[in-house]
Design the sequence.
Protein backbone atom coordinates (compact mmCIF):
# COMPACT_ATOMS: atom_id res chain seq x y z
CA UNK A 1 0.00 0.00 0.00
CA UNK A 2 1.24 3.52 -0.80
CA UNK A 3 2.21 5.83 2.07
CA UNK A 4 -0.25 8.50 0.90
CA UNK A 5 -3.31 8.81 -1.35
CA UNK A 6 -2.15 12.16 -2.73
CA UNK A 7 1.27 13.83 -2.79
CA UNK A 8 1.30 17.51 -3.76
CA UNK A 9 4.44 19.25 -5.02
CA UNK A 10 4.26 22.95 -4.18
CA UNK A 11 3.13 24.80 -1.06
CA UNK A 12 1.68 27.82 -2.86
CA UNK A 13 -2.00 28.73 -2.70
CA UNK A 14 -2.99 26.02 -5.18
CA UNK A 15 -1.07 23.29 -3.35
CA UNK A 16 -2.30 24.15 0.15
CA UNK A 17 -5.91 24.56 -0.95
CA UNK A 18 -5.76 21.11 -2.55
CA UNK A 19 -4.15 19.64 0.59
CA UNK A 20 -6.91 21.15 2.72
CA UNK A 21 -9.70 19.99 0.44
CA UNK A 22 -8.34 16.45 0.07
CA UNK A 23 -7.49 15.99 3.76
CA UNK A 24 -11.01 17.11 4.72
CA UNK A 25 -12.42 14.55 2.29
CA UNK A 26 -10.59 11.74 4.02
CA UNK A 27 -7.53 11.32 1.79
CA UNK A 28 -4.05 10.74 3.24
CA UNK A 29 -2.19 13.77 1.95
CA UNK A 30 1.40 14.96 1.92
CA UNK A 31 2.27 18.51 0.84
CA UNK A 32 5.89 19.01 -0.24
CA UNK A 33 7.29 22.56 -0.37
CA UNK A 34 10.94 23.24 -1.16
CA UNK A 35 11.09 26.55 0.72
CA UNK A 36 8.52 28.21 2.97
CA UNK A 37 4.78 28.00 2.37
CA UNK A 38 3.90 30.74 -0.10
CA UNK A 39 7.52 31.58 -0.79
CA UNK A 40 6.89 31.35 -4.54
CA UNK A 41 4.42 34.15 -4.27
CA UNK A 42 4.97 36.82 -1.66
CA UNK A 43 3.91 39.60 -4.00
CA UNK A 44 0.19 40.13 -4.03
CA UNK A 45 -2.04 43.07 -3.23
CA UNK A 46 -4.61 40.47 -2.26
CA UNK A 47 -7.50 42.02 -4.14
CA UNK A 48 -10.44 39.64 -4.25
CA UNK A 49 -12.50 41.05 -7.03
CA UNK A 50 -14.70 40.15 -9.96
CA UNK A 51 -12.60 42.26 -12.38
CA UNK A 52 -15.48 44.50 -13.47
CA UNK A 53 -13.74 45.62 -16.67
CA UNK A 54 -14.28 42.02 -17.89
CA UNK A 55 -17.79 43.27 -18.75
CA UNK A 56 -16.19 44.94 -21.79
CA UNK A 57 -15.33 41.45 -23.03
CA UNK A 58 -18.70 39.98 -22.06
CA UNK A 59 -17.16 37.76 -19.37
CA UNK A 60 -20.32 37.86 -17.23
CA UNK A 61 -20.29 34.22 -16.14
CA UNK A 62 -16.65 34.41 -15.03
CA UNK A 63 -17.35 37.60 -13.11
CA UNK A 64 -20.33 36.15 -11.26
CA UNK A 65 -18.29 33.06 -10.32
CA UNK A 66 -15.49 35.25 -8.97
CA UNK A 67 -17.96 37.35 -6.99
CA UNK A 68 -19.60 34.26 -5.52
CA UNK A 69 -16.20 32.94 -4.41
CA UNK A 70 -15.28 36.33 -2.99
CA UNK A 71 -18.38 36.07 -0.81
CA UNK A 72 -17.38 32.60 0.42
CA UNK A 73 -13.94 33.85 1.49
CA UNK A 74 -15.53 36.79 3.27
CA UNK A 75 -17.69 34.38 5.28
CA UNK A 76 -15.01 31.76 5.88
CA UNK A 77 -12.02 33.99 6.60
CA UNK A 78 -13.54 37.16 8.13
CA UNK A 79 -10.25 37.95 9.92
CA UNK A 80 -8.22 37.85 6.68
CA UNK A 81 -10.68 39.21 4.12
CA UNK A 82 -12.32 42.61 4.44
CA UNK A 83 -14.66 44.59 2.24
CA UNK A 84 -13.40 47.87 0.86
CA UNK A 85 -14.49 50.70 -1.35
CA UNK A 86 -12.80 50.78 -4.74
CA UNK A 87 -12.56 54.28 -6.21
CA UNK A 88 -11.91 55.02 -9.87
CA UNK A 89 -11.39 58.70 -10.76
CA UNK A 90 -13.12 59.49 -14.07
CA UNK A 91 -10.58 60.31 -16.76
CA UNK A 92 -11.62 61.80 -20.08
CA UNK A 93 -8.81 60.03 -21.95
CA UNK A 94 -10.12 56.57 -21.12
CA UNK A 95 -13.52 54.95 -20.63
CA UNK A 96 -16.12 57.75 -20.63
CA UNK A 97 -18.12 58.17 -17.39
CA UNK A 98 -21.38 56.88 -18.94
CA UNK A 99 -19.60 53.64 -19.86
CA UNK A 100 -18.20 53.07 -16.38
CA UNK A 101 -21.58 53.87 -14.84
CA UNK A 102 -23.37 51.28 -17.03
CA UNK A 103 -20.68 48.65 -16.43
CA UNK A 104 -21.00 49.14 -12.69
CA UNK A 105 -24.78 48.77 -12.87
CA UNK A 106 -24.28 45.38 -14.49
CA UNK A 107 -21.60 44.54 -11.91
CA UNK A 108 -24.05 45.35 -9.10
CA UNK A 109 -26.53 42.90 -10.59
CA UNK A 110 -23.90 40.17 -10.75
CA UNK A 111 -22.76 40.72 -7.13
CA UNK A 112 -24.41 38.48 -4.52
CA UNK A 113 -26.30 40.53 -1.93
CA UNK A 114 -24.07 40.34 1.11
CA UNK A 115 -24.71 43.67 2.70
CA UNK A 116 -21.90 45.33 0.71
CA UNK A 117 -22.69 48.82 -0.62
CA UNK A 118 -23.77 49.15 -4.26
CA UNK A 119 -21.80 51.24 -6.74
CA UNK A 120 -22.12 55.03 -6.68
CA UNK A 121 -20.84 58.18 -8.36
CA UNK A 122 -18.74 60.35 -6.05
CA UNK A 123 -18.18 64.08 -6.11
CA UNK A 124 -14.57 63.78 -4.91
CA UNK A 125 -14.17 67.51 -4.42
CA UNK A 126 -16.16 66.94 -1.20
CA UNK A 127 -15.12 63.44 -0.29
CA UNK A 128 -12.18 61.96 1.61
CA UNK A 129 -11.35 59.88 -1.49
CA UNK A 130 -10.55 63.15 -3.28
CA UNK A 131 -8.01 64.39 -0.72
CA UNK A 132 -4.85 62.78 -2.21
CA UNK A 133 -5.97 63.31 -5.82
CA UNK A 134 -4.98 66.08 -8.20
CA UNK A 135 -7.45 68.89 -8.50
CA UNK A 136 -8.89 68.17 -11.97
CA UNK A 137 -10.53 65.01 -10.67
CA UNK A 138 -14.02 66.01 -9.58
CA UNK A 139 -15.90 62.83 -10.43
CA UNK A 140 -15.11 59.27 -9.43
CA UNK A 141 -16.94 55.95 -9.27
CA UNK A 142 -17.06 53.76 -6.20
CA UNK A 143 -17.98 50.10 -5.80
CA UNK A 144 -17.39 47.26 -3.35
CA UNK A 145 -14.61 44.68 -3.51
CA UNK A 146 -12.58 42.76 -0.93
CA UNK A 147 -8.95 42.56 0.00
CA UNK A 148 -7.30 39.54 1.62
CA UNK A 149 -4.06 38.83 3.39
CA UNK A 150 -3.14 36.09 0.91
CA UNK A 151 0.05 35.00 2.69
CA UNK A 152 -1.86 34.34 5.89
CA UNK A 153 -4.79 32.83 4.08
CA UNK A 154 -2.39 30.36 2.52
CA UNK A 155 -0.69 29.48 5.82
CA UNK A 156 -4.03 29.07 7.62
CA UNK A 157 -5.29 26.79 4.85
CA UNK A 158 -2.17 24.67 5.50
CA UNK A 159 -2.86 24.72 9.27
CA UNK A 160 -6.39 23.48 8.56
CA UNK A 161 -5.06 20.78 6.23
CA UNK A 162 -2.62 19.61 8.91
CA UNK A 163 -5.34 19.60 11.57
CA UNK A 164 -7.36 17.37 9.24
CA UNK A 165 -4.48 14.93 8.98
CA UNK A 166 -2.30 16.19 6.10
CA UNK A 167 1.48 15.99 6.45
CA UNK A 168 3.01 19.37 5.59
CA UNK A 169 6.73 19.37 4.74
CA UNK A 170 8.58 22.63 4.24
CA UNK A 171 12.22 22.83 3.19
CA UNK A 172 11.60 19.57 1.26
CA UNK A 173 12.35 19.49 -2.45
CA UNK A 174 10.94 16.79 -4.68
CA UNK A 175 13.81 15.80 -6.97
CA UNK A 176 12.40 12.75 -8.71
CA UNK A 177 9.03 11.07 -9.21
CA UNK A 178 8.74 7.65 -10.86
CA UNK A 179 5.36 6.58 -12.13
CA UNK A 180 3.99 3.04 -12.23
CA UNK A 181 0.61 2.17 -10.74
CA UNK A 182 1.77 4.35 -7.84
CA UNK A 183 4.19 7.29 -7.58
CA UNK A 184 7.61 6.87 -5.93
CA UNK A 185 9.01 10.22 -4.89
CA UNK A 186 12.58 11.09 -3.94
CA UNK A 187 12.94 14.17 -1.73
CA UNK A 188 15.76 16.21 -0.31
CA UNK A 189 14.20 17.03 3.03
CA UNK A 190 16.23 19.64 4.90
CA UNK A 191 19.43 18.24 3.50
CA UNK A 192 18.52 14.58 3.91
CA UNK A 193 17.46 12.23 1.10
CA UNK A 194 14.15 10.49 1.77
CA UNK A 195 11.49 8.78 -0.30
CA UNK A 196 7.78 8.15 -0.14
CA UNK A 197 5.01 6.65 -2.23
CA UNK A 198 1.61 8.02 -3.20
CA UNK A 199 -1.34 6.78 -5.21
CA UNK A 200 -1.74 10.13 -7.00
CA UNK A 201 0.49 13.14 -7.56
CA UNK A 202 -0.30 16.82 -8.06
CA UNK A 203 2.16 19.18 -9.70
CA UNK A 204 1.21 22.54 -8.15
CA UNK A 205 4.70 24.04 -8.44
CA UNK A 206 3.56 27.42 -9.85
CA UNK A 207 6.24 28.94 -12.05
CA UNK A 208 8.30 25.75 -11.59
CA UNK A 209 5.62 23.53 -13.16
CA UNK A 210 7.50 23.17 -16.46
CA UNK A 211 10.81 22.36 -14.76
CA UNK A 212 9.15 19.90 -12.35
CA UNK A 213 7.44 18.25 -15.35
CA UNK A 214 10.66 17.97 -17.34
CA UNK A 215 13.26 17.23 -14.69
CA UNK A 216 11.33 15.57 -11.84
CA UNK A 217 8.51 13.75 -13.65
CA UNK A 218 10.43 13.53 -16.94
CA UNK A 219 7.40 14.26 -19.13
CA UNK A 220 6.63 17.07 -21.58
CA UNK A 221 6.00 20.39 -19.83
CA UNK A 222 2.54 21.94 -20.25
CA UNK A 223 2.65 25.07 -22.41
CA UNK A 224 2.98 28.01 -20.04
CA UNK A 225 4.06 31.58 -20.66
CA UNK A 226 5.16 33.35 -17.52
CA UNK A 227 4.61 36.98 -16.60
CA UNK A 228 6.46 38.82 -13.88
CA UNK A 229 4.20 41.07 -11.85
CA UNK A 230 5.71 43.78 -9.62
CA UNK A 231 4.51 46.17 -6.98
CA UNK A 232 6.06 49.12 -5.22
CA UNK A 233 5.47 50.12 -1.61
CA UNK A 234 5.41 53.80 -0.62
CA UNK A 235 4.96 55.58 2.68
CA UNK A 236 1.23 56.06 3.29
CA UNK A 237 -0.37 58.32 0.66
CA UNK A 238 -3.91 58.49 2.05
CA UNK A 239 -5.71 57.91 5.33
CA UNK A 240 -8.86 56.00 4.39
CA UNK A 241 -9.20 52.22 3.95
CA UNK A 242 -10.33 52.21 0.32
CA UNK A 243 -8.37 51.27 -2.80
CA UNK A 244 -7.87 53.38 -5.93
CA UNK A 245 -8.20 51.83 -9.38
CA UNK A 246 -6.40 54.18 -11.76
CA UNK A 247 -7.02 53.81 -15.48
CA UNK A 248 -3.78 53.70 -17.42
CA UNK A 249 -2.98 54.57 -21.05
CA UNK A 250 -2.99 50.87 -21.98
CA UNK A 251 -6.55 50.42 -20.53
CA UNK A 252 -5.09 48.30 -17.69
CA UNK A 253 -5.87 49.32 -14.12
CA UNK A 254 -3.18 50.27 -11.62
CA UNK A 255 -4.22 49.84 -8.00
CA UNK A 256 -3.10 51.83 -4.96
CA UNK A 257 -4.09 50.24 -1.68
CA UNK A 258 -3.41 50.83 2.02
CA UNK A 259 -0.83 48.37 3.25
CA UNK A 260 -0.09 47.28 6.78
CA UNK A 261 -0.78 50.59 8.48
CA UNK A 262 1.87 53.05 7.42
CA UNK A 263 2.22 52.15 3.77
CA UNK A 264 0.56 52.27 0.35
CA UNK A 265 1.13 49.49 -2.17
CA UNK A 266 0.92 50.21 -5.89
CA UNK A 267 0.65 47.53 -8.58
CA UNK A 268 0.85 45.81 -10.92
CA UNK A 269 3.55 46.29 -13.55
CA UNK A 270 3.54 43.19 -15.71
CA UNK A 271 5.87 41.92 -18.41
CA UNK A 272 6.79 38.56 -19.99
CA UNK A 273 9.43 36.53 -18.14
CA UNK A 274 12.00 33.98 -19.19
CA UNK A 275 14.70 32.57 -16.96
CA UNK A 276 15.03 30.93 -13.58
CA UNK A 277 11.81 31.37 -11.52
CA UNK A 278 13.94 31.54 -8.37
CA UNK A 279 15.39 34.87 -9.54
CA UNK A 280 12.62 37.37 -10.10
CA UNK A 281 12.91 41.07 -9.54
CA UNK A 282 11.26 44.32 -10.51
CA UNK A 283 13.13 46.28 -13.16
CA UNK A 284 13.78 50.03 -13.08
CA UNK A 285 11.23 50.29 -15.93
CA UNK A 286 8.58 48.52 -13.79
CA UNK A 287 9.19 51.01 -10.99
CA UNK A 288 9.07 54.00 -13.37
CA UNK A 289 5.89 52.66 -14.99
CA UNK A 290 4.10 52.43 -11.63
CA UNK A 291 5.40 55.84 -10.51
CA UNK A 292 4.26 57.46 -13.79
CA UNK A 293 0.83 55.79 -13.74
CA UNK A 294 0.06 56.85 -10.15
CA UNK A 295 1.75 60.24 -10.52
CA UNK A 296 -0.98 61.16 -13.05
CA UNK A 297 -3.55 60.93 -10.26
CA UNK A 298 -1.89 61.64 -6.90
CA UNK A 299 -1.33 65.27 -6.00
CA UNK A 300 2.01 64.49 -4.31
CA UNK A 301 4.59 63.41 -6.91
CA UNK A 302 5.47 59.70 -6.95
CA UNK A 303 9.13 59.04 -7.75
CA UNK A 304 11.44 56.06 -7.65
CA UNK A 305 13.19 57.55 -4.63
CA UNK A 306 9.89 57.26 -2.66
CA UNK A 307 9.82 53.48 -3.00
CA UNK A 308 10.55 51.79 0.34
CA UNK A 309 10.04 48.20 -0.77
CA UNK A 310 9.72 46.29 -4.03
CA UNK A 311 8.15 42.93 -4.66
CA UNK A 312 7.70 40.72 -7.70
CA UNK A 313 6.38 37.27 -8.47
CA UNK A 314 5.57 35.14 -11.48
CA UNK A 315 2.23 33.98 -12.76
CA UNK A 316 1.10 32.13 -15.88
CA UNK A 317 0.09 34.61 -18.59
CA UNK A 318 -3.54 35.13 -19.45
CA UNK A 319 -4.90 33.13 -16.57
CA UNK A 320 -5.95 35.81 -14.10
CA UNK A 321 -9.38 37.34 -14.26
CA UNK A 322 -9.84 36.69 -17.96
CA UNK A 323 -11.01 33.11 -17.58
CA UNK A 324 -13.11 33.86 -14.52
CA UNK A 325 -9.94 33.32 -12.50
CA UNK A 326 -10.34 29.56 -12.58
CA UNK A 327 -6.87 28.80 -13.97
CA UNK A 328 -5.94 25.38 -15.29
CA UNK A 329 -6.59 21.90 -13.93
CA UNK A 330 -5.17 19.09 -16.07
CA UNK A 331 -5.73 15.46 -15.28
CA UNK A 332 -3.95 12.46 -16.66
CA UNK A 333 -4.22 8.75 -15.73
CA UNK A 334 -4.08 5.44 -17.50
CA UNK A 335 -3.80 1.69 -17.07
CA UNK A 336 -0.78 1.13 -14.84
CA UNK A 337 -0.19 4.89 -14.75
CA UNK A 338 -1.07 6.50 -11.44
CA UNK A 339 -3.10 9.73 -11.67
CA UNK A 340 -1.34 13.06 -12.22
CA UNK A 341 -2.96 16.44 -11.64
CA UNK A 342 -1.34 19.65 -12.90
CA UNK A 343 -2.84 22.80 -11.42
CA UNK A 344 -1.77 26.35 -12.10
CA UNK A 345 -2.72 29.95 -12.57
CA UNK A 346 -5.95 31.70 -11.80
CA UNK A 347 -6.97 34.21 -9.19
CA UNK A 348 -6.40 33.64 -5.50
CA UNK A 349 -10.15 34.26 -5.20
CA UNK A 350 -10.85 31.00 -7.10
CA UNK A 351 -8.23 28.89 -5.30
CA UNK A 352 -10.76 27.11 -3.08
CA UNK A 353 -13.00 26.22 -6.01
CA UNK A 354 -10.01 25.26 -8.19
CA UNK A 355 -8.77 22.89 -5.48
CA UNK A 356 -12.23 21.38 -5.11
CA UNK A 357 -12.42 20.77 -8.87
CA UNK A 358 -8.93 19.27 -8.95
CA UNK A 359 -9.43 16.89 -6.02
CA UNK A 360 -12.84 15.87 -7.40
CA UNK A 361 -11.05 14.51 -10.48
CA UNK A 362 -9.78 11.72 -8.23
CA UNK A 363 -13.27 10.52 -7.20
CA UNK A 364 -13.30 7.64 -9.74
CA UNK A 365 -10.13 6.32 -8.07
CA UNK A 366 -10.80 6.68 -4.34
CA UNK A 367 -13.82 6.74 -2.12
CA UNK A 368 -13.96 10.22 -0.64
CA UNK A 369 -16.51 12.43 1.01
CA UNK A 370 -18.27 15.32 -0.70
CA UNK A 371 -16.78 18.79 -1.21
CA UNK A 372 -16.93 20.67 2.08
CA UNK A 373 -14.82 23.84 1.93
CA UNK A 374 -17.52 26.23 0.65
CA UNK A 375 -18.92 26.76 4.13
CA UNK A 376 -16.00 25.83 6.41
CA UNK A 377 -14.18 28.68 8.20
CA UNK A 378 -10.41 28.82 8.17
CA UNK A 379 -8.77 28.51 11.61
CA UNK A 380 -9.66 31.57 13.70
CA UNK A 381 -12.42 32.61 11.29
CA UNK A 382 -15.41 31.39 13.29
CA UNK A 383 -17.25 34.72 13.56
CA UNK A 384 -19.44 36.76 11.15
CA UNK A 385 -17.53 38.98 8.71
CA UNK A 386 -19.20 42.17 9.94
CA UNK A 387 -18.13 41.49 13.55
CA UNK A 388 -14.38 42.01 13.15
CA UNK A 389 -14.63 45.27 15.14
CA UNK A 390 -16.30 43.39 18.02
CA UNK A 391 -13.48 40.84 18.02
CA UNK A 392 -10.91 43.64 18.26
CA UNK A 393 -12.79 45.29 21.14
CA UNK A 394 -13.06 41.96 22.91
CA UNK A 395 -9.31 41.39 22.50
CA UNK A 396 -8.60 44.78 24.10
CA UNK A 397 -10.90 43.98 27.01
CA UNK A 398 -9.30 40.55 27.50
CA UNK A 399 -5.70 41.85 27.12
CA UNK A 400 -5.83 45.54 28.16
CA UNK A 401 -2.08 45.98 27.52
CA UNK A 402 -2.75 45.84 23.75
CA UNK A 403 -3.25 49.22 22.13
CA UNK A 404 -5.89 49.55 19.40
CA UNK A 405 -3.40 49.09 16.61
CA UNK A 406 -1.79 45.98 18.08
CA UNK A 407 -5.19 44.44 18.81
CA UNK A 408 -6.32 45.13 15.23
CA UNK A 409 -3.18 43.57 13.75
CA UNK A 410 -3.33 40.47 15.94
CA UNK A 411 -7.06 39.84 15.43
CA UNK A 412 -6.70 40.37 11.68
CA UNK A 413 -3.89 37.79 11.62
CA UNK A 414 -5.15 35.13 14.02
CA UNK A 415 -8.89 35.75 14.57
CA UNK A 416 -10.21 33.74 17.49
CA UNK A 417 -6.93 31.77 17.67
CA UNK A 418 -5.31 34.78 19.31
CA UNK A 419 -6.29 33.11 22.57
CA UNK A 420 -3.68 30.39 21.93
CA UNK A 421 -0.89 32.99 21.61
CA UNK A 422 -1.76 35.45 24.36
CA UNK A 423 -3.53 33.06 26.73
CA UNK A 424 -3.41 34.27 30.33
CA UNK A 425 -0.87 37.07 29.70
CA UNK A 426 -1.49 40.12 31.88
CA UNK A 427 1.19 42.38 30.49
CA UNK A 428 3.47 42.64 27.47
CA UNK A 429 6.30 41.36 29.64
CA UNK A 430 4.49 38.03 30.05
CA UNK A 431 4.96 37.51 26.31
CA UNK A 432 8.76 37.42 26.47
CA UNK A 433 11.34 39.57 24.70
CA UNK A 434 10.21 41.97 21.98
CA UNK A 435 11.58 42.33 18.47
CA UNK A 436 10.72 45.80 17.27
CA UNK A 437 7.63 47.54 18.61
CA UNK A 438 5.14 44.77 17.80
CA UNK A 439 6.52 41.26 17.64
CA UNK A 440 6.83 39.30 20.87
CA UNK A 441 8.62 36.04 21.60
CA UNK A 442 5.23 34.40 22.30
CA UNK A 443 4.02 35.22 18.79
CA UNK A 444 7.30 34.17 17.15
CA UNK A 445 7.30 30.90 19.05
CA UNK A 446 3.69 30.24 18.08
CA UNK A 447 4.54 30.79 14.42
CA UNK A 448 7.49 28.42 14.67
CA UNK A 449 5.52 25.72 16.47
CA UNK A 450 2.19 25.95 14.69
CA UNK A 451 2.79 27.61 11.33
CA UNK A 452 6.11 26.19 10.06
CA UNK A 453 8.10 29.45 10.39
CA UNK A 454 11.83 28.63 10.31
CA UNK A 455 13.60 31.85 9.35
CA UNK A 456 13.05 35.52 10.24
CA UNK A 457 11.73 36.31 6.78
CA UNK A 458 9.04 33.62 7.15
CA UNK A 459 7.69 35.66 10.08
CA UNK A 460 8.51 39.18 8.93
CA UNK A 461 7.40 38.97 5.29
CA UNK A 462 4.89 36.15 4.92
CA UNK A 463 3.13 35.48 8.24
CA UNK A 464 3.18 39.24 8.85
CA UNK A 465 4.60 42.28 7.10
CA UNK A 466 6.42 43.46 10.23
CA UNK A 467 9.63 43.47 8.19
CA UNK A 468 8.46 46.77 6.75
CA UNK A 469 9.04 48.61 9.98
CA UNK A 470 11.63 46.51 11.80
CA UNK A 471 15.18 47.71 12.31
CA UNK A 472 18.19 45.61 11.35
CA UNK A 473 19.07 45.14 15.05
CA UNK A 474 15.60 43.75 15.82
CA UNK A 475 15.82 41.41 12.82
CA UNK A 476 19.14 40.13 14.10
CA UNK A 477 17.72 39.65 17.59
CA UNK A 478 14.82 37.69 16.11
CA UNK A 479 17.21 35.50 14.11
CA UNK A 480 19.17 34.74 17.30
CA UNK A 481 15.95 33.98 19.16
CA UNK A 482 14.74 31.63 16.41
CA UNK A 483 18.05 29.78 16.43
CA UNK A 484 17.91 29.15 20.16
CA UNK A 485 14.13 28.64 20.47
CA UNK A 486 14.08 25.92 17.81
CA UNK A 487 15.15 22.34 18.19
CA UNK A 488 18.83 22.24 17.20
CA UNK A 489 18.64 21.91 13.42
CA UNK A 490 21.48 22.56 11.00
CA UNK A 491 19.37 24.70 8.66
CA UNK A 492 18.88 27.36 11.31
CA UNK A 493 22.37 28.62 10.71
CA UNK A 494 20.83 30.98 8.12
CA UNK A 495 22.19 34.53 8.36
CA UNK A 496 20.47 37.08 10.48
CA UNK A 497 20.38 39.30 7.45
CA UNK A 498 17.89 37.15 5.57
CA UNK A 499 15.07 39.36 6.75
CA UNK A 500 16.44 42.57 5.31
CA UNK A 501 17.38 41.29 1.91
CA UNK A 502 14.18 42.30 0.21
CA UNK A 503 13.62 45.71 1.64
CA UNK A 504 15.12 49.10 1.18
CA UNK A 505 14.78 50.69 4.61
CA UNK A 506 14.42 54.42 4.54
CA UNK A 507 13.25 55.27 8.01
C1 LIG B 1 2.42 38.77 -8.39
C2 LIG B 1 1.08 38.11 -8.21
C3 LIG B 1 0.03 38.87 -7.74
C4 LIG B 1 -1.22 38.30 -7.60
N1 LIG B 1 -2.21 39.06 -7.13
C5 LIG B 1 -3.43 38.52 -6.99
C6 LIG B 1 -4.49 39.30 -6.48
O1 LIG B 1 -4.32 40.47 -6.14
N2 LIG B 1 -5.72 38.72 -6.39
C7 LIG B 1 -5.91 37.42 -6.76
O2 LIG B 1 -7.03 36.94 -6.65
N3 LIG B 1 -4.92 36.65 -7.22
C8 LIG B 1 -3.69 37.16 -7.34
N4 LIG B 1 -2.67 36.38 -7.80
C9 LIG B 1 -2.91 35.00 -8.17
C10 LIG B 1 -2.89 34.04 -7.01
O3 LIG B 1 -2.13 34.48 -5.95
C11 LIG B 1 -2.52 32.66 -7.48
O4 LIG B 1 -3.70 31.93 -7.33
C12 LIG B 1 -1.39 31.98 -6.73
O5 LIG B 1 -0.23 32.73 -6.94
C13 LIG B 1 -1.25 30.55 -7.18
O6 LIG B 1 0.06 30.12 -6.93
P1 LIG B 1 0.52 28.62 -7.10
O7 LIG B 1 0.16 27.86 -5.87
O8 LIG B 1 0.06 28.03 -8.39
O9 LIG B 1 2.09 28.77 -7.25
P2 LIG B 1 3.21 29.34 -6.26
O10 LIG B 1 2.68 30.27 -5.26
O11 LIG B 1 4.34 29.80 -7.12
O12 LIG B 1 3.67 28.02 -5.48
C14 LIG B 1 4.42 27.00 -6.06
C15 LIG B 1 5.34 26.45 -4.99
O13 LIG B 1 5.96 25.28 -5.49
C16 LIG B 1 7.22 25.16 -4.86
N5 LIG B 1 8.05 24.21 -5.62
C17 LIG B 1 8.52 24.36 -6.88
N6 LIG B 1 9.23 23.27 -7.24
C18 LIG B 1 9.23 22.41 -6.19
C19 LIG B 1 9.81 21.13 -5.94
N7 LIG B 1 10.54 20.49 -6.87
N8 LIG B 1 9.60 20.54 -4.74
C20 LIG B 1 8.86 21.18 -3.78
N9 LIG B 1 8.31 22.40 -3.96
C21 LIG B 1 8.48 23.01 -5.15
C22 LIG B 1 7.74 26.59 -4.87
O14 LIG B 1 8.73 26.81 -3.90
C23 LIG B 1 6.47 27.41 -4.61
O15 LIG B 1 6.32 27.77 -3.25
C24 LIG B 1 -1.42 36.92 -7.93
C25 LIG B 1 -0.34 36.15 -8.39
C26 LIG B 1 0.90 36.74 -8.52
C27 LIG B 1 2.05 35.90 -8.97
Sequence:
Amino acid sequence: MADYDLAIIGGGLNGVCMARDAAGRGLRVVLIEQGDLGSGHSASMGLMQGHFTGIERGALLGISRLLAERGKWLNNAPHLVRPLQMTMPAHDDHRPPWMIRSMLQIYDRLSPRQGLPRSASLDVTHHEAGVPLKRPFGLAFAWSECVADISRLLVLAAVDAAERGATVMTGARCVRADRTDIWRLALVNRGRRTSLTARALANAAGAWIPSVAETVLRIAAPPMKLMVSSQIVLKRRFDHHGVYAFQNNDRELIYAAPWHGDFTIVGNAERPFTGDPAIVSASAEDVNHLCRATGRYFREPVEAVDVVHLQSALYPAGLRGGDGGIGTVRFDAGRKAAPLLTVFGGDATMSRRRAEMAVSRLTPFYPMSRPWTATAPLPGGDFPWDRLGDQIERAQERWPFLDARQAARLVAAYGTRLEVILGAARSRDDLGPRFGPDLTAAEARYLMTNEWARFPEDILWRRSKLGLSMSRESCEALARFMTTAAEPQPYLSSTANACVERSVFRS
Observations:
- The CA atoms of residues 329 and 357 lie 8 Å apart.
